Amino acid sequence: MCDVELVLKRLVHLIHDHLLEPGIHDWMHFLGTSKLEWAVLLTAIQRSVRQYHNPNFTISFDCASPFLATANGQLYHNITTENRKKWSYNMSPTADDKKYATDNRLFGDAVRQDGIHPAFEDSPITSRMKISDVCYYKPGDLNKIGKEGRTSWDSFSYALLMGHNVWTHIEAVQRANRMFDSGVCPDMMVHPINSDYDIAKVVDRIFAARDRSKSLQIIADHAKVWERVVGTRGFTGKRAVNSHSQFNTLFDVEEVEVQDYILDKTHLDKLEFSV
Hints:
The protein is mostly helical. It is built from eleven helices and four strands, in the order αβαβαββαααααααα.
């Protein structure tokens, strides 16, 4: 999930060590994988391994971001898959105001009209709920522990918004794969020398080669290609060699894509817990 070059080398060795055998070793899971570019890349790897080595091979991955984002008061609101650009599902703080407790507008209409999310893509959940379903508490209402809290959300508000975030995350992954199959390519997967030759074609060559050393040589010959692929923790195939590059691998001050967040204590304090 951090280094595509390492992933490819490991897979080549597994194949030639007979550890990806059909009916025996059919599944590989990647933890905490959130980037849409990696979703597309892993699909390309899965297809190539299926074609040349194991027709049952399946790659899966997971991400806690939809849940952690909600706990921080954040909502997925639009998906970006422009050709030769960075791909992402964007999030930002959403509606949390007691004035909405008597507002009967649909959630999507309300957040767009009030400028909370200028761009907002509905899910099957938000298209059916009112903003008052999320902003449930009116001024003066007591929560389940008998106090008037700062938030307008009740426990079910979190469940609704988590459902929306999960649906949007899945839709983003599926849309990314559809777009890539149609010829739209994220910048990260464009070949640095031949822009008409995307990384998926290199991946296919690696697994089409039946010889271990030849596959590894193709990987080595494309070192500059793998350096373009940013890992899901900010790392690339190129190892950090100084304090500045190490900082850049660990922190991204302009990142708008949802990552696996540390819970925000300020918002977490507003959560209700009942025994």
